[in-house]
Amino acid sequence: MIDILKRRFGLLGRNISYSFSKGYFTEKFNDEVFAGNTYENFDISEINHFSGLVKNNPDLKGLNVTIPYKEQVIPFLDKLSKKASLIGAVNTIKFTKNGKLKGYNTDYYGFKKSLKPLLEPHHKKALILGTGGASKGVAFALDELDILYTFVSREAKENIIDYDLINATTFDNFQIIINCTPVGTSPNIEACPNLPYEFFTSKHIAYDLIYNPEETQFLKNAKEHGAIIKNGYDMLIFQAEKAWKIWNK
What we know:
Number of strands: 12
Mean pLDDT: 94
Number of helices: 8
Low-confidence stretches: none
Radius of gyration: 19 Å
Helix content: 25-40%
Structural class: alpha/beta
Distance between the termini: 13 Å
CATH topology of the largest domain: Rossmann fold
Strand content: 15-25%
CATH superfamily of the largest domain: NAD(P)-binding Rossmann-like Domain
Strand order of the largest sheet: 2-1-3-5-6-4
């Protein structure tokens, strides 16, 4: 059992009033085992405000990091875990006993643990929609699962295809489609990535990192054509619990 101490944790991001993390940890801390812990949102308009936030809150013990700062926060940290360094994105920060800030990535862990039960032998290749910080954790998890992947963005670049190139042949070759963009998040719930959804089949997995709404338009469209669908809620639970372990080790 963890000793009852008064400790402060929080979420770093921008426009995060909808935050999963605050609700999750606040509920967790309502349990008497965790009494004394608090969790709050730190909503900053630009990453340069991070140093002031740390200076003005010397009793902070840990932070989660969300859009758009998973990559931008790295130069402000003293150290990265090996995996966070390889991924190039941070979603968990630990305030160490000697006052240093160490960055970790638990997104990859949460995604991997939530996707694994859905996988069958024919799930060999994945399309990752989006190229932001969250997509980097997803790519790392796919590497660990020996699943090949290709990034999709609105502009084609080296090793990235654009949406206009996706067709029936693409869906034959890629059996997992993962939305790592914010398209379809509440309140814009009618929006969805620009895909030819008619090519989804029962052999496909459609995974959306979004959890609000529970079933995005992306997932609804894929489901209509028989695809297995999964939202990001379980991923968030797994990554949050992993962050909690990091803060307490």
